[in-house]
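Last lecture ended with a question: if I hand you only a sequence, what can you say about the shape of the protein? Today we answer it with a concrete record. The protein is Lipoprotein signal peptidase. Below, first the input exactly as provided, then the predicted structure, then a couple of comments.
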Amino acid sequence: MTKGVTPLSHPLIAGIVIVAAVILDQVIKLAVEAYLPMHEAVPVIPFLALFRTYNLGVAFSLLSGMEREFIIGMRIVIVGVVLWLWRRTPVSRTFAHAGFTLIIAGAVGNLIDGLVYGHVIDYILFHTETWSFAVFNLADSFITIGAGLVILDELVGSKSSD
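The predicted structure:
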């Protein structure tokens, strides 16, 4: 690698991270399917529970009334666009490349769910006695953290090295 190249700007390294993240996501979802009861909270700590449910849409069940093929097509387009952005981003943009890598991994994990099951398997629930956050999964976390890294890169990334 040349000077200024970040590890996740190298296609092989980014590909390995994506494959490892997708495998981890899918193994956890297989375990959730096998061992976690449906729609029954299993407390982990006071504000965190495991809660298996299915999401027919995208994040926060948006577009859940849309056709399965539309949702799958949209996920494929998102992976393609983010891959295109990853390729066009200068190699010195560490946070952006890490973010794009995580977004791709999360999108592929949820895309596999859509293709195999027809829905996304969600299982993480943050809650209190009077409030609960949307149920999500590891792939959703990858997407969220990745988006945060891309935003961070835009805020603090070095524009002079581009």
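Comments.
1. The chain has one domain: 9-159.
2. The two ends are 17 Å apart (CA to CA).
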